[in-house]
Amino acid sequence: MSTPDQIFLAAASFIAYTYAAYPAGIWALSRTQPDECAPPLPDDACPEVTVVISAHNEAARVQRRIDNLRCLDYPQDKLHLLFVSDGSSDRTAELLRQFPGVQVIEHAERGGKAHALNAAMARAKTPVVLFCDMRQTAERQSLRLLVSTLVQPGVGAVSGELTHVDPGTQVAANIGLYWRYEKWIRKSESRWRSVVGATGAFYAIKTPYFVPLAPGTLLDDFEIPMQIARQGQRVLLDGRSLVFDELQNDMAGERKRKLRTLGGNFQSFARHPWLFSPRGNPIWLQFLSHKVFRLAVPYAMVCALISSLLSSTGWVQCLAAAQVAFYTAALIGMRSQTWRKSRLIAFATVFVELNWTAMQAGLQFASGRLDLQWEKT
């Protein structure tokens, strides 16, 4: 077998493991475990919860966010709302203070989300803390269901399931094959042992397991749960606990968000080398397979394409032609919204865009050009 063929097989096998073999394997393993979702707790068994939200210039969303939290099916005398106004220049802090029972920490200068969350956690005294954002809304029973799973022995963090809706009709939208595929993997990881990270829009932790975030941390919803997993606690996903978010119409803003999120992975990897140690990271295999290998796939794609084009073997040349057709379909989808209505072209476009963004994020982080400022969307 020629060298180009060997390189192609290695690269193709790596991609196949990351996107097919690992998801199928973790799903099969998850079937051997019982469902972790616990029945809803009665009122008298519900622990006190502090809801922590960091906000920057969110005056327009204050009323809706408070209304949603006050409508949750959870004993209101056990629910404490704590907001951090992170350098807001609008009326965010002023409006929040108008609501009875709402605690507000106001920072005149913007310190970033990690700084805001650390400040809130220094004040939180309840056994459970719920992290959520200003933009999303939660289904009425979400918190009770989330906490019911969290209080089980050996569980340190639980996140809800993010569901996208159309901002015009408020009807659940088809958010694409890729997101459904991603949630399938997370549910399998949760049932087997632990999810690699949490859904940042709505996740709860047992307060004693919180580890303060380093300044400038981009991915609190990755680092906080992973630090909890490091302490031997499980991180679960409760698919019954639904939180709703509107689909984003601003594609430029969505690309910037993805770039910052993927770049945040590189930041966490560099800051926490223990993540790569089988001894230090109890979910080491899931971490490598789900997080690290995904970020290496773009380079494997380049190797697979180039090596197959250089090959003199017939079947490898056929696969080279298939790759060229796939990337051509992705380019067509990027340039034409009409063609993007085709499921095949839409899949190719999303897959290539995601991997191209991952490559950009890695290069920006390595060169020090990654934007570390947390922005609302």
UniProtKB/TrEMBL annotation:
Transmembrane annotation, as ranges: none
Tree of life domain: Bacteria
Pfam families: Glycos_transf_2
Keywords: Glycosyltransferase, Transferase
Limits of the Glycosyltransferase 2-like domain: 50-177
Keyword Hydrolase: no
Record-level Gene Ontology MF annotations: glycosyltransferase activity
Entry's family note: Belongs to the glycosyltransferase 2 family.
Protein name in UniProt: Cellulose synthase/poly-beta-1,6-N-acetylglucosamine synthase-like glycosyltransferase
Origin species: Aquabacterium commune
Lineage, broadest ranks: Bacteria, Pseudomonadati, Pseudomonadota, Betaproteobacteria, Burkholderiales
